[in-house]
Amino acid sequence: MTPGSDQSSGDLTRDDGYELDRSAVAAILYAVDTEDKEQLTRLMEPLHAADIADLLEQINSNDRERLIHLYGREFDGEILTELEESVREDVIPILNPQVLAEAVRDLETDDVVDLVEDLEEPQQEAILDVLEDADRVAVEQSLSYPENSAGRLMQREVVMAPEHWNVGQTIDFLRESDDLPEQFYHVILVDPRMKPIGNVTLGKLMGARREVLLVDLQEEVFEVIPADQDEEEVAYAFNQYHLISAPVVDGDDRLVGVITIDDAMVVLDEEHEEDILRLAGVGESALSDSVADTSKKRLPWLGVNLFTAICASLVISQFEATIAELVSLAILMPIVASMGGNAGTQSLTVAVRALATKDLTGANVWRVIRRELLVGMLNGLCFAAVLGVVGMLWFSSPMLGAVIGTALVFNMIIAGFAGTVVPVTLDKMGIDPALASGTFVTTTTDVMGFFIFLGLASKVLL
Amino acid sequence: MTPGSDQSSGDLTRDDGYELDRSAVAAILYAVDTEDKEQLTRLMEPLHAADIADLLEQINSNDRERLIHLYGREFDGEILTELEESVREDVIPILNPQVLAEAVRDLETDDVVDLVEDLEEPQQEAILDVLEDADRVAVEQSLSYPENSAGRLMQREVVMAPEHWNVGQTIDFLRESDDLPEQFYHVILVDPRMKPIGNVTLGKLMGARREVLLVDLQEEVFEVIPADQDEEEVAYAFNQYHLISAPVVDGDDRLVGVITIDDAMVVLDEEHEEDILRLAGVGESALSDSVADTSKKRLPWLGVNLFTAICASLVISQFEATIAELVSLAILMPIVASMGGNAGTQSLTVAVRALATKDLTGANVWRVIRRELLVGMLNGLCFAAVLGVVGMLWFSSPMLGAVIGTALVFNMIIAGFAGTVVPVTLDKMGIDPALASGTFVTTTTDVMGFFIFLGLASKVLL
């Protein structure tokens, strides 16, 4: 995006806020079709790298390849870092090696890390090879930190000052440095052993007199991030404490890098995506994945579901004789299971989310479980009344109405209980509750729903 | 948190990363029980306002009230802004009016807006009354913007410079201002009509010579946010373009405020929470809501589900005679519905998420639908094979195996189709797809699952 342009200016042409405009995409594809390089460059020029990445993800692979060939040397390294993994793996081999080299050399080292960490070995090598020696060493050092750790996320270029400096010394030092990082928001105060002890914002530095000591300007809120901390925790800290940047330290508490909020925001977004997709049993997936990949990624959860559905069917089969005598039971039984499944999903989603935001802890877990039991009972009673009447009117059997109502109440209490206890237990065991809770909870409500309803019916109605 | 403290220092005592430690909570509650104000203050002092807010949310309302009374004047305004709405409404009346007044007066105006916008009228008045006149006017002006708009989110204190200034003039101006905002990261360049035309980071300003023009230092990426833009779009823009701060303009393109990334991150987090909870049919909810509130909030979706479950039962009842003759159909039919429901949920979650990130657009919607149909068919065929064998072995009827397998394939194709078309259509109609897609999709897969399986069985097996 050129300076001064904004979303209302003509060329950007996004109709719904920031969404890529369909006609802009069409115009770009037309330029590709007619091999009009000049027009293509003109159309792409106002687009931000992130938007170009979105565009490349949304068009088909044939158009993508032709567009990249025609676009040629204009291809920017930042586009690569913004691409979904699966598309990125397709794009890298298409790029002319020289274009790739130029694109990558322009990137900051933390972006290169981001780019190469998910790539297959040969592609990773190809990119590391084009870097200058110093940059390659920096990237390789970052890659030595565990995956998804603060060490991978941080940038190594830091701006720091000894704790005894005053504003004047710091400003002179900054004016004389000729390679300040692209983006920085704080000067980090360090003690003689390189341990970070405080942050001073550039705004405070600007507004203070030269003789003021840095220690007198430091921010009230200051968090130091260990390099091996999981990036999910890093994102949580930024969100919880409204941090803008935070120093990263190694095992000896020495400053080794800095993480800025824009990187933390990306992580927060990814963690959310992971949770939402895992809750639905989808796993990591992107819209640009192929049919085969998508199918493969979704199979495991569906397989588990098939297994649990067969378990539920086994429960039903125990009551084969009962159903043969009273077919209305087969008609009504899915209602009990379905209501339990939905109530259980509600409880477990609230619990999974509360665990992620650290709002559900040892301090309140019992109160939350009690609440879920009561909510299950209350809502169960409401719908039991409705369903009792439906059962009575439809099948003219008050007893059938009473049986389905009772079964519903019990199943919804069970749903509330399982919906909280299952994710909390998984979390305690170190398993992501978003990943596995759904199966356990809906299996419980299915099996128990059929069992209570059919069991009660066989005792009472026959 | 005091300057220099970090998460490894003794008093903070958080065991799992940033989670509140159970023993720290116990110690605080013990101080409350023994009315040991000194000890309470000592224990609370190292805690960040956001952590104190979490603590207040996690303890019961009785302990909460006693803690607040004992804590007295130490109560900080920032704690209020960090609290969940329902707890906040409980806390405000407990606070001594003078403590409340002091707490609120310390806040920036955008935090006051955040605090009062969700409050009931009398509580809102009580807070606005304690503000100084200038602040009250600022807050009331912000409240005049629509709810969840950029105007509500922005802070009104901006740092700007005429477009023709150089670095020296700007630095002198900053040094002479005596009320720079607490946090700012850019100097906004404006034209003579107050239209923002560019951003210069403080880092660049520090590093450049005095005679360099500001326009030569401006950032490449620059987005201007209209004051009436929805905050969800604002968060998207910050995340997509890695913005740190962005100027907000009124209808005449005049600068009226600035939004910083920390506020955008909070919005992103809230929007995700909303999506994840809506997908589960929970709506807005917090762990600290009462049983009655929780129950009431979950009823609507369960009611809708009851209705759709009854629809599915009506479909089953059409095949009463068939089931009476062949009870194994009743045993197997939940499997077809359950597999369809799960496959549909997978598709719709991917679609809802892709719509939120603007990855699913007019440019690729047909390709995505085709992919979902193919994935449904592929996975359907896989499990049809398994299920066919199960049906055959269990009930020794190859034809029954063939029927359930065929029904499964069709239902999973339907699931893939509905799981994409439903959210896309709702989105086009301006309805949040996270809110309503689930009902439509699972109703479709339930009804169609039962209909195809039982219908086919009645034709083929009887």
TrEMBL record, chains A, B:
Top-level taxon of the source organism: Bacteria
Residue spans crossing the bilayer: 331-352, 373-395, 401-422, 434-457
Pfam families the UniProt entry points to: CBS, MgtE, MgtE_N
Subcellular location: Cell membrane; Membrane
InterPro entries found in the cross-reference section: CBS_dom, CBS_dom_sf, Mg_transptr_MgtE_intracell_dom, MgtE_N_sf, MgtE_transporter, SLC41_membr_dom, SLC41_membr_dom_sf
Membrane topology of this protein: Multi-pass membrane protein
Domain CBS: 217-274
Main localization, broad class: membrane
Keywords: CBS domain, Cell membrane, Magnesium, Membrane, Metal-binding, Transmembrane, Transmembrane helix, Transport
Function description: Acts as a magnesium transporter.
Family to which the UniProt record says this protein belongs: Belongs to the SLC41A transporter family.
Subunit text: Homodimer.
Protein name per its UniProtKB record: Magnesium transporter MgtE
Organism: Parasedimentitalea denitrificans
Recorded name of the encoding gene: mgtE
